[in-house]
Amino acid sequence: xxxxxxxxxxxxxxxxxxxxxxxxxxxxxxxxxxxxxxxxxxxxxxxxxxxxxxxxxxxxxxxxxxxxxxxxxxxxxxxxxxxxxxxxxxxxxxxxxxxxxxxxxxxxxxxxxxxxxxxxxxxxxxxxxxxxxxxxxxxxxxxxxxxxxxxxxxxxxxxxxxxxxxxxxxxxxxxxxxxxxxxxxxxxxxxxxxxxxxxxxxxxxxxxxxxxxxxxxxxxxxxxxxxxxxxxxxxxxxxxxxxxxxxxxxxxxxxxxxxxxxxxxxxxxxxx
Length: 272
Known about the structure:
Elements: H1 2-18, H2 20-27, H3 33-51, H4 58-71, H5 78-85, H6 94-97, H7 99-105, H8 108-130, H9 138-164, H10 170-187, H11 189-194, H12 206-225, H13 230-251, H14 259-271
Helix pairs in contact: 1-2, 1-3, 2-3, 2-13, 3-7, 3-8, 3-9, 4-5, 4-8, 8-9, 9-10, 10-12, 10-13, 12-13, 13-14
């Protein structure tokens, strides 16, 4: 029990360090669901750090993502994963190097679903690294955002089903993830451009990406409408309402929302 408690504390510490946005809704979840979502987020964050690493070349990123993907199965061996990371242990962040622990943290009954989604995400990320993230049309935008975020929606739906039998629409789940991702694309366009990355389809500007994002966020609202479990509703609504507030700020020429606005939104969601 002590070992599991230590792993729980370690996971929550890394969640707080890597994403306040998701730490907040995860911290409100009940036992069991908290471990499942926490593990899933950290597994995906671990491979995301490979894709986004500023000092790794494309070939190394592709090789790492493909190697990790091949090992993400229910009979995984931590030593095999560590062996993949060993040549890069002084380069990769701790959240990536601890991937084996995040898999151990996951409740056994849902581990297979988490690994399946993370495996597919790693494969998709490797594909888009090879394309240098150059997007030319809406179909490519939808494909990229599916791999890095729509898949999260699918995985969450699998976790809800495992937890209490909650059924959700797969396409709406994908839109939920994609909508959150394109908010980030809108917010980070200048930063992405500085590293030579373009997520905007040809001919698209702020207006077109905004319209696309708002459409997906409308579908995200519909996704949540079908959910009755309050803990799950709160988890989904917190990042969704924060995304909507971020869009509003961007339309007003601001870069992001402030911490007091975040606190107000979170309190409004959990009090309803």
